[in-house]
Please model this.
Amino acid sequence: MRTGENVTVIKEDGSKPAERFNAINRDKDATALLVYEAGAKPRQVLTQRQIHDAIDTGIQKQVDATQEDLVYFRSTSGFGCVADFNYTHKPTLVERDGMYGYSYGYTCETYKGAVTGEYFVAFDDAGISHRMTVEALQTEWERNKEALSAIIDSLKPAL
Model:
């Protein structure tokens, strides 16, 4: 794996992530990648109720989304979905290692071809947001499913 260098990300609201890490496999035409992003520590203390409400709203928005919305949600991370979004597993609440969030698996068409991926979003006990996408071309995912799926489960916040 190698990290992406000299990458500046500016979110739609004009903010930048506090931490961002990209990794792709070394193949000339990359077939697998990881994108991790952590938000800045909030200025005010977030209560568990606020964190749960934010995640509950996010998961409901994901469940209620149209096909167009689902493609849009995944269009800006990973290889970037352009069509045919499908869940491999529906959004599921995740509570572990001081984090509360949700994850889901998916397939979609990208400019590189069909991909399979996992997405995870959560807040840790300090109120810091964490997002991680792991994606691979479907043939790469099938060859390395256990290892690629394990990346999401390996995330532990450094509090």
